[in-house]
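so im writing up the methods section and need the Sensor diguanylate cyclase/phosphoesterase, PAS domain-containing record in one place, dumping it here so i stop losing it
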Amino acid sequence: MRSPCSSGNPPIKTRSDLFCIMLRDGHIVGSSFAWQALLGYPPESFRALKLQNLLTPGQDHCWSRILAKLQTHNATSLLLRCEAANGRILYLLGHFTPATPALQGAIRATFQDISISYQAKLLTRQSFRMVRQMATQTNGAMVMFCDSGRVCHWSPEAEALFGYRSKDILRRDIRSAIPLCHDLAAPQTTEISGHPPPCPDLALDPREVTCRCKDGTQVTVDLSLASFATHKRRYTIGLCYDRQRHTAQDRHIQQLAYYDPLTELPNRVLLQERLDQSLAEALRSHHPLAVLFVDLDRFKQVNDSLGHAIGDQLLKMVGQRLQQCLRSNDTVARLGGDEFIIVLSGFRHPSSLPKILDKIFDALSKPYRIEMHRIVVTASIGVAVCPDDGTAADLLMRNADIAMYVAKEERGNSYQLFCQEMNQALKDQLALETNLRQAVDNGEFFLLFQPRFHLASEKVVSIECFLRWKRSDGNILSPKAFLPRLEEMGLMASLGNRILRKACAFGASLQQAGMPHIPVAINLSCSQFRQRNLHESIATILQETGLPANCLELEINECTLQKNEERAEEILRSIKRLGVSWSLDNFGLGYTSLQRLKTLPFDNLKIDRHFIRNLPETQTDAAMVGAILAMARNLGLVTIAEGIETFAQHHLLLAMGCHYGQGFLFREPCRPGELQTFLQAEISPLQPAFPTIAPPFTDSDCKAPENTRATSAGPVH
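--- predicted struct ---
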């Protein structure tokens, strides 16, 4: 044996087959032939090796642990995970002792290769964990026994299935619980040698076995067995499934997989299968097939007003009525929510569809009595016919969906047959939505302002803000082309708040430039009006922009008022307490009751341009305008006429007692800079600043009523 100080690292002849000598830094200075052969490194490579170089990642602490132990003990042992030159993983149990004094403080190590037994133990644990996880996920009972038949594991599920508690069955013969186990053909054994073998195949064909429970009863189970062996013994793992229980569970799972749990109608999965089958038959027999997309009208109102429990009962009854008015070979499925799909197959000609659809409408339109409620609902139906509108299931359902939306947008309680023009309309709609999202992100919207005038004095009393969209192609669109879509997309609330902030900032900038206190009017969208924090948002915007509250006029139309009828008065009064005035826009086009109008805190009533444009020629429009003005006068509301374009309209409205007006006759909507130039030219040095309170009319103002309500829209005399 050479000294550790010598330059070589020759093989050492020793009684131990696996032996090496190391310095305290881990350098191997001597080793046995068997050690070198096991690791597979060339003899010259050992000169540069440390024991730490042989350990797999994660065992950096092992050498320091060995040194620490040897400081207080004469010997220590540790299991090491080493990597041979060919990449093979070895599990070596090392025994470390100080070398003789002649070896100058070196450490002597002898090793025992336990790779086979240790890997067998790992495989046993791995297999056991895998089977236990499988049993847990499938609610199966798991048992494990050795080659002698003694039970070594008995899961809680096995306790419940067979009645034997774990402590009573462990180490007993498995055949006392499952008598037929010994008669089964032994599953294929996985032997362990060298490298760890793959986990045993647990998906063997199950056997039907009758087992005897502890109480003497018998239970039929599906038994799957898998076996593996270690270097000492063989183990068998069994998974047992109660056949009767799992048959019921399978039926329940199939019901959930293919049927809607609420209505028990076929769901989307089963619909797809049946529609594919019906399409194949229709194409083979050259008979037409129709797909009907049914959507209930205003179902959300039922849920919101009567509760989801009533809504669910209504959906069940709708499903039953649809089934009752169709043939047995037709399919009625629920997609979700208030949407249903009907597949009509086997009818002779598409001309018979109207009669079938009338039958469906008649069935659905009859009142539904649920608890103490009498509910009437209608439906919108879109129809796509094979082969004209498509021969694939997805295409037919999509086209029927498109036709349904056309029916709903037109008037509801009707049906529409699909045509290719609808498809193009949908593409245009999707393109519009994409462009609108980009417009919001890119800031393509801008504001125009139009002044309003006191009809008698023709002086500016306020300005109204209008939204425009300058598309990337340079075209400028008015709100009618995009506002409804922005509302549907849910973008109008946040965009509206930004518009409100810009309008208020412009109004404040006019005052900072020496302009009079001119009120700024802006229309709130429906989604803006229903915001829970609307009061706080407006107060914050007024504070941050510096616009006085009495210089802000908010407008809502009758549609917004009707959609938020329950909270409308609360919202209006809350904002009005800030000092902001309210106008009811487009009056005359909706269905606002006079009783409701009397109780709401509006300041101004705007007469829609629809009644103005044909004045004075059309007597009926003149009568309508006169009635609106008389009603507003009795309610103490200031009136504002929209869309005045001719002198005749101006003079007639003035004679009828209308207070204010706007339109192209006076000034068309313009950019902020243009408006500021116009206002500066309108204001003479001797003219007083524009006030914020509307005056009573005098005799010279065409005998307007003296009790006109104060508003922020007019001047003080």
